[in-house]
Structures are given as C-alpha cells and as structure tokens.
Amino acid sequence: MILGIVEGTVVSDQNSFDIPGGRYLLINKCNQAGKLKNEFLVALDLVSAGKDEMVMIAESTSARETPTTKNKAVDAVIVGIIDKIDENDKVVYTK
Amino acid sequence: MILGIVEGTVVSDQNSFDIPGGRYLLINKCNQAGKLKNEFLVALDLVSAGKDEMVMIAESTSARETPTTKNKAVDAVIVGIIDKIDENDKVVYTK
Amino acid sequence: MILGIVEGTVVSDQNSFDIPGGRYLLINKCNQAGKLKNEFLVALDLVSAGKDEMVMIAESTSARETPTTKNKAVDAVIVGIIDKIDENDKVVYTK
Amino acid sequence: MILGIVEGTVVSDQNSFDIPGGRYLLINKCNQAGKLKNEFLVALDLVSAGKDEMVMIAESTSARETPTTKNKAVDAVIVGIIDKIDENDKVVYTK
Amino acid sequence: MILGIVEGTVVSDQNSFDIPGGRYLLINKCNQAGKLKNEFLVALDLVSAGKDEMVMIAESTSARETPTTKNKAVDAVIVGIIDKIDENDKVVYTK
After folding, report:
1. What digits encode the pLDDT tens for the residues E25-42?
2. Domain residue ranges of chain D, discontinuous segments joined by +
C-alpha cells in the first residue's frame, strides 16, 4: 500500500460506478513522515477519511475486493487512516 | 484513478474486443487543475465523454469490471466525467 | 491500452503457455503519431498483426481475458490493429 | 517479487481490512545485496518478519491470493524471509 | 512479457508459498539482444531455466494463472526460455 494525504474532493456526477454515497478524494502521495510528493491520484474513500489525514491506499485490482467495490472499475481505494508510523525505532508520524 | 483530457479518437476495425458501439479515445493525462502532461493512452469510453472533457480513468484489471467489459482484454476505461475538483478548499477545476 | 509497432518475432519452444499457434511478437512502443520510443516488450498476438503495423496492447491481468489466454500467465496481448488516430481534429496516423 | 528490508511498523486502527492480528510493516526496498534504495512501501506481514530482515514482497493483485488476504483490498504482502542470495556463483546476501 | 537473464538463486525457507520444488531465481532484466539493464527481480521458475539463459517473465496477477501458482501470492513467473529473437528481419539473439 502507498501513503498519501487527503487534499480535496473530486465530483463526477456522470460516472459508471453507481456507488451510493461513494466519495472520491484527491490524494497527494507522501512519505512515511508525511512529506508531500506532489504526485496526485483520485481514490474512492471507504473509511471516511478527513482532509489532511494520512491514509493508506491500495491500488490495482486489489481496490475492488470489498463489498462496496466488488465488480466496479475502481483502481484506487483508501483502506486505512494512519495513526502512527515508526521507522528504525523512532516515531516519524503520529495523527 | 488518474485524470486526463479527451483529445481524439482511435479507430481499430480489426480487434479482439467485439464490443458493439465501443469507442476508443485518445487521452492526454493531466493534473487536478487540467494541466496537460503530454503522456497519452488509449481508453475505452463507458460514459460518452466528449472532446476536451476531463475524465477519470481506471487502469489495470479493474478496467474490465463492468457489464460491457467483462472478460475482455481491456486495461483502461473512462469511468467518469469530472465536474469539479477542489484542493485545499479552493476549486481548481470546473467543467 | 498502449500503442506500439510490430518489429519482430520471439521464439520460445520451451514455455508454459501451451497455446497452439501462439505467436510472440517484439513490440516497440510508439506515440499516437507512430513515433518509436525504443521501449520494447513481448506480446502474444491475437489479431494476426503484421510487421510494421501499429497495434493496441493490453497489459496486466487484462491480457488473459480472452478464450485463447484464459488461465495462462500472459501479461501482454495485442488486441487490435490501428487503422486511424485523430488528435485535436487532425489525423495523426493512418494505416 | 521485489526485495526489501523491514524498517518499522505502521499503525492504522481505522481500516477496511478486518484482519485479526494483521501487521503492517514499513519496507525500504533494497537490491539483491541488501543495499537500501530509500523507496518505501507498506506491506502486510504474513511470515512474522522481524526488523532489519530482508524479505520478498508480492505486489499487485497477487497480494490477496492467500487464505488471510482473500477478498481484501491488499496490494502488497510479505511472502518470504530471505536466507541467502547468490549472483553469478557468489553469495551476495546471507541472513 | 519482459525479458531477462538468469543470474542467480534466492533461498527463502520461511515463506507463504508452499510450492514443492519451487525455485526462485534472480533475474537481471535485458533488452531483445540480451544487453543487461541491471534491474533485478525475483521470479518463480516454471520452465527449469538455467543460469545465463534468456527468459520471458510474466508479471502482475498473470503470474498466478498456472496449475502450480494458482491461488499463491506470486507476482513474477518465468514462463519461457528464449530460443531466438529477430528484429527488423535480423536475428538479434540466439540461445
């Protein structure tokens, strides 16, 4: 999974997903300390992530292996909100 | 999902898809504000996207998880037309 | 899907595919106007593409979603021969 | 599969995986001799890998083809702990 | 499929594959003439490839579509040993 920060929302009324309540968020990829990479993608939100939260994103086909996304053409899903990351025994990120 | 602008059409009479009415569009990838990256791909259109519209594209296997593309060797599908994107509480794109 | 030009053939008698008549072609990726990128891959041919023809290639798992490739470890398949591409209302490639 | 060194842990209480005991590790990709690339990813641990061990990671959809990850949106899984690598008849890494 | 040269072996006793007799080989990617790229990956061997042989590798999910790898988290498999490649009517590689 890759890490990213929620920076905004994407509105698409005319789409092929048909997911009631589905939210598409604009994600800026980041490193394990939260440093932004300014590489963006659009991901479906499954965990009610909020703005500026660090999240884990599953890409590729894996993105549709949930009850919500089953048999949908989704290739990026937010699968977790990050609470804490430690690297070499030092905490490098906390929510 | 990635973002792109519809820039043209691709005609391929001799293909293995057998999708009646299937349209293949030439997409120029763009950022969330619509700035073109001049990186191109060919995607199957599922939402009747028009020229110069910004669209969301699902890549990889996810692209065949729709009634139309089921069991077809499609790896890029236009899944939504973008109406609006906001980033850090500012609208950076509107249709 | 990506675009490429057929530049040669790859012979592999000892393989795990067991696809009667399967042909493996050497593909040079190209842009929408046919300009070569000199990035190469090997793809299974499903449409009897000929040398120097521009083709569409589906990569990733999508490549095995055809009667021929079902349940085979194929990750790149030629799915169409390109007849014409237009970009911003100009024809940039014809067969 | 790619190679990496376990450098830390990632805590995400609010996630969509629902894998009891699932551990998410911070991986620094490395070459076959253990040289770090400083390219990081988050992977689910299936083999009880410890800090500083070199591991093999399966990415993409393949990551959910285990009893634990079946039908979960996981796209990176640690599938093996590396004991030894030889390259051109020289041992370049041992645990 | 991509091309590579077999350069060594990878030993991992503690793994989640449970493939009797499964061999993991260290592959150095190469071009169609056998020129090494010094980009390495670990692949499961299905065709009894030997050291210094040029092989075709299927990546991504496609890698588990064989009787041996079915439902295993394998994302790179050696699917064929290359005998000959011709490019623009010249033989650029022979075994």
Report:
1. 999 999 999 999 999 999
2. 2-94
What confidence tens digit (pLDDT) does each residue in D31-80 have? Answer: 999 999 999 999 988 889 999 999 999 886 555 556 566 556 678 889 89
Q: What are the pLDDT digits (tens) for B37-76?
A: 999 999 988 889 999 999 999 886 555 556 566 556 678 8
| D 24-83 residues with CB < 8 A to E | 31-32, 46-47, 56, 58-66, 69, 77, 79-83
Q: For residue D74, is it left (φ>0), alpha (ψ between -120 and 50) or beta?
A: beta
Distance CA B89, CA B8 (A): 32
Residue A35 pLDDT: 96
Give D54→chain E minimum CA distance, Å. Answer: 10
Nearest residue to C29 (alpha-carbon basis) of C21, C38, C20: C38
Mutate to test the interface with A, among D10, D41, D68 (most CBs of A within 10 A): D10
Q: Which residues of E touch C45 (CB under 8 A)?
A: none
Output the pTM of the full model.
0.83
Select the residue of D13, D26, D73 nearest A58 (Cβ to Cβ). Answer: D73
Low-confidence ranges of chain A (pLDDT < 70): 17-21, 60-73
Picking from E40, E60, E64, the nearest residue to D31 by CB comes out as E40
CA D59 to chain centre: 9
Distances (CA, A) of E20 to A20, B62, E16, E23, E77: 46, 32, 12, 9, 15
Q: Is the pLDDT of residue C62 over 60?
A: no
Write B62-65 long-range contacts (CB < 8 A, 24+).
B62/A60, B62/A61, B62/A63, B62/A64, B62/A72, B62/A73, B62/A74, B62/A75, B63/A73, B63/A75, B63/C62, B64/A73, B64/C62, B64/C65, B65/A64, B65/A71, B65/A72, B65/A73, B65/A74
Residues 6+ away with beta carbon under 8 Å from A74: A17, A44, A63, A64, B1, B58, B62, B65, B79
Q: Which residue of D has its CA nearest to A48?
A: D14
Other C-beta atoms lying within 10 Å of the C-beta of residue C47: 17
Q: Which residue of B has its CA nearest to A50?
A: B88
Domain C2-94 belongs to what topology?
A: OB fold (Dihydrolipoamide Acetyltransferase, E2P) (2.40.50)
Reported confidence tier of residue E20, pLDDT bands at 50, 70, 90? low
Q: Where are the alpha helices (DSSP H) in A5-61?
A: none
Mean pLDDT of C45-59: 92
Collapsing DSSP to helix, strand or coil, D63 comes out as: helix
